[in-house]
Amino acid sequence: MSTINFGPDLRAVAKIEAVPMILRMVKHVTGMRFAAVARVTNKQWVTCAVDDSIEFGLAPGDELALETTICDEIRQHRTPVIFGHASEHPVFSKHHTPKLYGLESYVSIPIVRANGDFFGTLCAIDPSPADLDVATVTETLTLFAQLIAANLDMQASVDQSRRALEDEKETGHLREQLIAVLGHDLRTPLSAIRMGADLLESKLVERPERRLAVAIQRSAKSMGSLIENILDFARGRLGGGIPVEPRIVDTLQADLERVIGEIATAHPLASIEHSVQVPPLNRCDPVRVCQLLSNLLANAVTHGRRGAPIKVMISCDDYQLVISVWNQGVPIEPALMPRLFLPYTRSELGQREGLGLGLYIASEIVKGHKGTIAVTSSEADGTRFTATLPSAAPDQPQALIAPTEPSTPDSHP
């Protein structure tokens, strides 16, 4: 009765495509008619693979009593055992194993894993004597045993990596589900805070108290932006992208100017210069485009040099809406550029405010519009983010209905 589950070991050996060929080569090199790979522990001997021309009667998964074999001795001293004529051998003529199984010739080579663990043996047996070149047999079969051990180690490494990846995916999925639930549930108390702050601001007369109410309003608005970013991140990761719903709009310029005004009000120390020139009609998701501008502008305020102007340029050119946000400040490190639009990048690197989701969400909004986003950054020229989205001129109604795809594929710098 097995006390250990050898199923994984049997499957691991079965996956090694070279094992059948190795067993045939063992028989050829030794001249014996039975070859096997055995799993050997301090309690059990189990067949993992076999090539049997003498009908010895073992198949993969079959066991021999450990004490009836020589393999337990090999497990302990880890050296090969080879003899070609047991009845004439000074030691093995008296050993119980050849007598019990009627063996004359025998070869057994230890299989040892890279970490030093003893797996088992590569062995060959025959009831007839064999004329063995011990040195050649030992060298050849040792190489075969090492090949088996190397394959077992490789499989173990691949399996461990696969399990780690699956665990990471499961952990990430659960984390993102939790983020989505928390973000959704936080909206209700936040709405209550906003309503309470609005009521306080309307009722209070004294200036200090009114300033407190205004501060609560601003904090609630900032928290609302964080929650929306969390929800968008969860939607993007769990649902295949942030949803974008383009439509024909005639208020885009006013909407974008409102966003700039809100950021300027929330950050009175920031100097924001802007030029917004867009056609009366545009085809886009106006809410998402405003969110895109808000995230890029908030990024510039957060990482720009204090007191230096921030410049926003928005225009339409060749049926494309171009949003450019420029600021001065410490240039973005070249090593950070490839990861800049991935979630958490700046927060992981100890950058200042926020969750590190703003640029990720901005890039997903651009992707949803089938546009592109790029960044340049240097000490001399400052940092500029440029988002380009398909749009249409007012005299191109067909383009508004069915906009053409951008000529360049979506890419992140």
Automatic annotation (TrEMBL):
Enzyme Commission number(s): 2.7.13.3
Alphabetic keyword roster: Kinase, Phosphoprotein, Transferase, Two-component regulatory system
Catalytic reactions on record: ATP + protein L-histidine = ADP + protein N-phospho-L-histidine
Region: Disordered, residue numbers: 387-413
Identification of the protein by name: histidine kinase
Coiled-coil intervals, chain numbering: none
Gene3D superfamilies according to UniProt: 1.10.287.130, 3.30.450.40, Histidine kinase-like ATPase, C-terminal domain (3.30.565.10)
Domain of life (superkingdom): Bacteria
SMART domains reported for this sequence: GAF, HATPase_c, HisKA
Provenance organism: Phytopseudomonas seleniipraecipitans
Domain Histidine kinase, residue spans: 181-393
PANTHER family in alphabetical order: HISTIDINE KINASE 1 (PTHR43711:SF1), TWO-COMPONENT HISTIDINE KINASE (PTHR43711)
PROSITE patterns: HIS_KIN (PS50109)
GO MF term list: kinase activity
Taxonomic placement: Bacteria, Pseudomonadati, Pseudomonadota, Gammaproteobacteria, Pseudomonadales
